Amino acid sequence: MRLDRFLANLPCYNRQQVRLLLAQQRVRVDGQVSTDPLHEVREFSQVEVDQQVHQVGRPARYLMLHKPAGCVSATHDPQHRTVLDLLPAELRADLHIAGRLDFNTTGLLLLTNDGQWSRRLTQPSTKLAKVYRVQTEDEIGAHYPAKFSEGFYFAFEDLTTLPAQLDVLGPRLARLAIVEGRYHQVKRMFGYFQNKVVSLHRESMGGIHLDPTLAPGEFRPLTAGEIAL
Ligand code: URA
Questions:
Q1: Does the domain formed by 62-228 have CATH 3.30.2350.10?
Q2: Residue 187 Cβ contacting ligand 1 at under 6 Å
Q3: Where is the RNA-binding S4 domain (predicted)?
Q4: What is the structure's pLDDT at 43?
Q5: How far apart are the CA of 44 and the centre of ligand 1, in A?
């Protein structure tokens, strides 16, 4: 939100007072004086007027986790272990998942407390490529890739999936890039051929690749470069 709007939304200042506070250099964002009404205030920014703190700054956190099979992509679950249970308690607070995986799907899972970042990553208009390694029960036919690029009609959502790229790596093994994140999307796509997905592993989301040094259940912070990607 713009700094002038942020301040005017507080119960103590009207728009005229906000203009004056800024001009008189009485406003600090993250410790620096700001006179710019358009200064972007994020949920992580500390905002002070005359040393009075109106929003406490906190660090934005971004983690990649190698999700193992047999845990739920949720922050709470009454029955099963969740991905948050894999993190130390002090890291769990206020994290959410950017792009869930099914219970038995493995691979790259991103966790953050930055809602703006995760929304940008997962909203359909971003068309971020998610790449999966897929093992199937039956052989993958030579006609499959054309159908993946043409799209599948999903009756429940009444939509046709966007073009997806299927590279066949072996008789029952493929790499699939999709730009959406519909419910059970990969399994439903293979379901069209009545071919069951027996193992599913996410390798990357956009430019962020699962770190090969992470064993299932391990995590690390994203680098500044990965966050920017
Ligand atoms: N598609 C699926 O069917 N399952 C996942 O976990 C991810 C994509």
A1: yes
A2: yes
A3: 1-61
A4: 86
A5: 32
Evaluate: CB of 186 within 6 angstroms of ligand 1: yes
User: C-alpha angle with apex 8: 5 to 10, nearest 5 degrees?
Assistant: 115
Q: What is the pLDDT of residue 229?
A: 86
| Centroid of ligand 1 to alpha carbon of 216 (angstroms) | 17
pTM of the model: 0.87
Domain locations along the chain: 3-55, 62-228
- 3 state DSSP class of 20: helix
CATH number of 3-55: 3.10.290.10
Does the active-site annotation cover 158?
no
62-228 matches 3-55 in CATH topology: no
Side-by-side strand order, sheet with 27-29: 32-33, 27-29, 47-49, 52-55
Take atom 2 of ligand 1 and give the residue whose Cα is closest: 184
Question: What pLDDT is attached to residue 88?
Answer: 94
Check if 102 has its Cβ closer than 6 Å to any atom of ligand 1.
Answer: yes
